[in-house]
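Work Package 3 committed the consortium to producing structural models of liganded targets before the mid-term review. Because experimental data for this complex are still outstanding, the team generated a predictive model from sequence and the ligand definition alone, so that downstream docking and mutagenesis planning could proceed in parallel. The input record is reproduced below exactly as it was submitted to the modelling pipeline, together with the SMILES string for magnesium ion.
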Amino acid sequence: MRTRQLAFTVAHRLAILAYIVFALFPLFWLLKVSVTPNDLLYSEGVRMWPSRATLEHYTFVIAHSAFPTFFKNSLIVAGSTAVTVTILASLAGYALSRFRFRAKYWIVALMLITQMFPLVMLVAPIFKMLSPLGLTNSLTGLVIVYTAFNVPFATFLMQSFFDGIPKDLEEAAMIDGATQFIAFRQIILPLTLPGIAATLGFVFTAAWSELLFALMLISGNDAATFPVGLLTFVSKFSVDFGQMMAAGILALIPACLFFLLIQRYLVQGLTAGAVKG
Amino acid sequence: MASIDIEGIRKSFGAFPVLHGVDLAIRDGEFVVLVGPSGCGKSTLLRMIAGLEEVTAGDIRIDGKRVNDLAPKDRDIAMVFQSYALYPHMSVADNMSYSLRLRRSTKEKIASAVSGAAAKLGLDPLLERRPRALSGGQRQRVAMGRAIVRQPKAFLFDEPLSNLDARLREQMRAEIKKLHGDLRATSIYVTHDQIEAMTLADRIVAMHGGVVQQVGTPLDLYDRPANLFVAGFIGSPGMNFFEGRYLVSGDHADLKLENDVTLPARRVGGIESGEPATLGIRPEHVVITEGGALEGRVDLIEPTGFGIIMHVTVHDVPLKVFTLNRAMLNPGATVRLDLPRDKLHLFDGEGRRLG
Ligand SMILES: Nc1ncnc2c1ncn2[C@@H]1O[C@H](COP(=O)(O)OP(=O)(O)OP(=O)(O)O)[C@@H](O)[C@H]1O
Ligand SMILES: [Mg+2]
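The resulting structure, written out as tokens with the ligand in place, is given here.
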């Protein structure tokens, strides 16, 4: 019995390890190429680590490329999108979770339908809509498009978090003297922090790495986000892999920081103790 | 404190009717217990009084003022939920003071109200804890504390003790009774538990299928149940019933069962000879005696410690007998029984009480 249990545990850990290696290997390769000097990139064959590491790609990318602009643009776009979507999705998700209203079924159906189209189909019509409004080649335009595409899924996500909070809690608050909105703000919202963090994180990463619309709606470096900017490292005759990978690594940093910030809320079960359990 | 008047209350969820016209006048300071089987609409009625459920038809008045269209917060009542519904992100003290903070009471007033309630319920050492760090019984107390910090017009309880174990339930039951003695607050209490209903209530409201069956003091319902439903619902073990035809001969009456056996009954008005009727007797009123008129075959003995529940069969009809006589732990294969006439309950073909 003991040995079988042990064997099971070991197998379990090995499986997890294999998965982690598989998932993280591309990131490792990103890192490896980003510190490989250009002259060693093709000359050393396939090695796990170059014989000489360098940070020259990083300094170049930060000091001499338009990368800081891309980075700033991405931060603005992803941040605004995440905040806007989360606010809208919280309100909409709460309404879907708690209220019965006439067109609820149809609204949900319509929101689902928007999720069914391949986005490529929508590029041309959206461009047509945004260009007379002067919203092409602008960060605002991107924020609007990303918000529109992310709200439905985020709404369903938030709804499921609200569904998980017992209705008794806000009823108790309402009997204690709160209006429905006060009960939402003071009782329900604090308990949904994990959900809000998850939604923020999800939308932020989605907007951070979006390429298609950024590519189609933005031309020129001034309003380019970082996924578009990465492509500038691809020139007609060569690809500057070292710089591209360094930029990629740098672009990972805010996403990591962001998750570090919210992971506290992601893991905790705040509702414990609310009702008999 | 206030009276609560309920007039012709109806409730439907969509096309599905749940309450079919409930009338109830609750006096100032009275403790009323709603009992009834699951799904009969007790919680729905309570939630309508609280303002959590819309009223389909009828009027609810608190202190003479119609509150149908008033939001819960404007009704000035407190409610203890079965799930307790404590705010998990607030300490015990904050849970209790939330209603006062919403009303913008002064700091001193809040502090004295919270410490007063905490002292009453023995919550002093727990005030800084979060609900998740409390036992079920402690959570229950906090829920009570949250209700009593502000002096509301009425208390509503929806099965507040049903999540506690039997011993704790007994203890909290006594505490609730004591609390009500102190505060004299109008209270409506929903429960499944017979003993809670009998011990706590000034008056019991027995409900079934969205209709009030009987309203009365606990002993009213026990001694003179208004119909078959109440007779069967109140009391544990439940009342025994025999169905048959009511036969009058001279100045006494009998009940003739399907299998032609006759049982003694009582002469009552409101029923003609030959009409269908049901005879009821509580297990504790059946007398085991050498000279009993009936013979019962013993099927099963259930000792409860306090007494003994015997399952016997009399003329093919199952009958439960409750006795304190320890000798009945080892009865013979049969016992002789009497059904004292003055303890019999008679119901007509529609199940209404006769006499
Ligand atoms: N929101 C709702 N929508 C539809 N039907 C409902 C709703 N709430 C309650 N009901 C129905 O109303 C009836 C009465 O419910 P209620 O909760 O009042 O019963 P109860 O007497 O409190 O039962 P229990 O003792 O099990 O708590 C039930 O048949 C229930 O299915
Ligand atoms: Mg109920």
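Reviewers should note the following from the model. The interface with chain A takes residues 50-52, 71-73, 77-79, 81-89, 98-99, 102-103, 130-134, 136, 139, 146, 163 of chain B (CB under 8 Å). These observations will guide the Year 2 experiments.
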